[in-house]
């Protein structure tokens, strides 16, 4: 079965998101499509994976289609998603883990207000290659107005 990490196109990602109601009902993962308001234009996707219910934290993922990047879409998605996690799911920590060389994702995390906590050695594997990653976090206090 095709998973988000192996989606190669918007239709692959949309199909993955469409299979998520069961994971949502179990609280195992939460996936969202990023859409143009009042239009049928899919810009990308985002969600929570690797939810740790005991310690109430999760990993956030996001992606935006080519041609729609560098417009603040992912930044807004991360903020909304993290707020949803803290307020509706009672999560105490939302983690953004980005490979050290993934400058756009690192920029998104920073612009979303996530706190950079450090470099995690050998944290992610992409296309069978091990990479160090930058760890960021958002916590409920980040949303106090």
Question: What topology emerges from the helices and strands here?
Answer:
Blueprint: H1 10-18, H2 21-26, E1 30-35, E2 42-52, E3 57-64, H3 73-88, E4 93-99, H4 103-111, E5 115-126, E6 129-138
Word description of this protein:
This protein has one domain: Gcn5-related N-acetyltransferase (GNAT) (Aminopeptidase). It contains four helices and six strands. The chain has a six-stranded mixed sheet with strand order 1-2-3-4-6-5, with helices on both faces. The protein is globular. With 145 residues, the chain is α+β, with helices and mostly antiparallel strands. Residues 1-5 have low confidence and may be disordered.
How many domains comprise the coordinates? 1
- Main beta sheet: 6 strands, mixed
Number of strands: 6
Distance between the termini: 42 Å
Strand content bin: 35-45%
Structural class: alpha+beta
The helix tally amounts to: 4
Which architecture does the CATH hierarchy give at level 2? Answer: 3-Layer(aba) Sandwich
Rg, Å, rounded: 15 Å
Order of helices and strands: HHEEEHEHEE
Average pLDDT metric: 84
- Stated plainly, the CATH topology is called Aminopeptidase
Widest sheet: strand ordering = 1-2-3-4-6-5
Q: Any idea of the CATH class? A: Alpha Beta
Instruction: List low-pLDDT spans.
Output: 1-5
> What is the approximate shape?
globular
């Amino acid at each position: 079965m095709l998973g988000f990490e192996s989606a190669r196109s918007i239709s692959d990602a949309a199909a993955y998101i469409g299979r998520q109601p069961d994971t949502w009902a179990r609280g195992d993962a939460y996936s969202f499509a990023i859409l143009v308001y009042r239009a049928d234009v899919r810009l990308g996707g985002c969600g929570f994976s690797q939810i740790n219910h005991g310690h109430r934290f999760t990993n956030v993922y996001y992606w935006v289609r080519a041609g729609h990047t560098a417009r603040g879409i992912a930044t807004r998605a991360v903020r909304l998603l993290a707020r949803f996690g803290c307020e509706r799911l009672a999560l105490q920590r939302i983690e953004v883990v980005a490979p050290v060389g993934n400058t756009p994702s690192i920029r998104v995390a920073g612009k979303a207000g996530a706190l950079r906590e450090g470099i995690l050695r050998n944290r992610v594997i992409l296309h069978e290659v091990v990479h160090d990653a930058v760890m960021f976090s958002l916590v409920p206090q980040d949303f106090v107005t």
